[in-house]
Amino acid sequence: MARPKANRSKRETQHLTDAVVRRLPTPTVGNKVHYDDEVRGLGARVTSAGARSFVLNYLTKGGRERRITIGACSDWTTTEARAEAKRLRHLVDEGGDPLADIEDARAAPSVDELADRFEQEHLPRKRPSTARDYKHMLAIHIRPALGRLKVAEVAFSDIDGLHQKITKSGSPYAANRTVAVLAKMFSLAVRWHMREMNPAKGIERNKEYGRRRYLSADELARLTQALAAHPDKQAANIVRLLLLTGCRRGEALSARWSDIDLTEGTWSKPPSSTKQREHHQAPLSAPARQLLADIRAQQTGKHRHALPTFVFPGPGQSGHVVDIKRSWRQLCRAAKIDALRIHDLRHSYASQAISGGASLPLVGALLGHASPATTQRYAHLHADPMRAVTERVGAVITAAGKPATAPTPIKRRR
Q1: Domain chopping of the chain, boundaries
Q2: What pTM was estimated for this model as a whole?
């Protein structure tokens, strides 16, 4: 905004009215301010282009002269502009600086800027798959709906409204995930002194139901056949490792030879590769060790005794494979299996372990669960082995309660 002239004592004033403002002459160049005789500092500014607006000149407590635009004369009447000028002067008398407040508000970070910092500083600490999911939600839901708002202006109703909108579109789980991302973003915004409270707190989430999808015996047989015929042998081996160990997809994709001991039959997963960010040592079954031994032998022969870093190296041997979605779709199509996610192979491993008599704590240890509550989702699988045990006990009790068979009487000879 233009600085007012310093010769304040020589300003000419007149009583501004709507009619007077409309008749004010248009300067040849630049602009001219016509001051009001009732409210000190209030004026009507006219530019050489004919634009007319109400302004207020004031002096801050620090002695700095400022000019703030109240609004266009076409939108404000003189009476309204005079009342607004009085309100602003009252703020100045209390030590405020209305123009500085406006400038601060304009400079305040937007949700888009918060999202940028969130992606740059927070997401690198997350697993690659989690970071990709967060970026997707930011791009699809958060930035379009809230990006232009100032961080300090976002209200509970804004986030609740976005949650309801996504829910009504048929994506209740995505709505919950979006609120979770926003809750973390604004938690960081509070820590970064962008605002005082988290507006995502208290949003009522949609009820979620855990999936209970497991491979049946027939599906497992068909999947095994599809794996044998699949042209991408590396993708097939990744799926085999998932089936044999119950590991997470990210753990399999990023598995390193240095973490696998085929002699001891152990897989030491570093914190960087596990969901709970803790070290997890998992035992390897004989079939799993044989699978890994075969993979190692093939790689040793191919690379002349120099093993790559990763069990499943990426193209050009740089890094590791990051995705097998396409191969997974092809395998499911070939095996005629519907609605089965890659993660369901982990559930299937757990179901086989529990059906074989393993306890929930043991299954949790095998899968690397950080909380017993996570393993509790498999509690219903105890039904079959428990039923078999109770049937055996019932048979014994029933047999014990039956009267002994009466001996056959021996007929005497006459």
Answers
A1: 8-104, 111-191, 217-381
A2: 0.52
